[in-house]
Amino acid sequence: MTESILIIDDNEDILEFLSVVLGDSYQLHLATNGEIAQTVLDKEIIHLIISDIMMPGIDGFELCRLIKSDVEYCHIPIILLTSKNTYKAHIEGLEVGADAYIQKPFSSELLQVQIANLLKNRRKIKEHFASSPFEDVRVMAHSKTDEAFLKKLDEYIRTNIKDPNIDIDMLAGHMFMSRTTLYRKIKSLSSLSPKELIDITRLKQAASLISRNEFSFYEISKMVGYSSQSLFSRNFQKYFKMSPIEYFDSLPRE
Predict the structure, then answer these.
(1) DSSP line for the chain
(2) Residues 203 and 113 in one domain
(3) What's the whole-number mean pLDDT along residues 114-135?
């Protein structure tokens, strides 16, 4: 999947320059002010934001503050670009939640490395969560807001885990979000669809039950909402790279 970057700058030359530098590696969305940026965020799955600080209307500091305080977007890493070469400006950028702060004029190589590192770290966390039977969903949180969102989502799925029909509509109703907004949030945070997140939560609960050695695999598959033991086994293998019996055999014995 090609990751998408939203670039916000009122200078058309900067937008054109960054399009040339980043266009071959990422899917780009361009905005000349905060209002246009908001429209893009409402429609697209964005993996990273690059924003100038000095803009008419909503400046970069205020935009960063708004994004980082909104549950729908607070997980998106933000790089602030500025010509303000002062310690105070740097501190303010970090205080509003910026993940990186780059001074103009900047080298395109420095920007590319900074982007690559931020996205790579996010990818590693997502992959670790998806492939680790006991890793808590909150490992993917990048803020207290994200942590609360993921905890509420996880608790709902686990409370209703025996129901094989949990779907995005049920999740959206519980989270007081539209289907589209919830899908974007979950996909951007975890690289998983809501259905895949439900499946992984079922399988993590199954891994916990397997480790207790109190139930058969058939019983466990029913307890976590699978109508078919064969489907349960296939999905377990898909995400954790081992079958339920192989997982059981790998557990330490007292």
Answers:
(1) ---EEEEE-S-HHHHHHHHHHHTTTSEEEEESSHHHHHHHHHHS--SEEEEES--SSS-HHHHHHHHHT-TTTTTS-EEEEES---HHHHHHHHHTT-SEEEESS--HHHHHHHHHHHHHHHHHHHHHHHH-TT--GGGG-SSHHHHHHHHHHHHHHHHTTT-TT--HHHHHHHHT--HHHHHHHHHHHHSS-HHHHHHHHHHHHHHHHHHHT-S-HHHHHHHTT-S-HHHHHHHHHHHHSS-HHHHHHHSPP-
(2) no
(3) 92
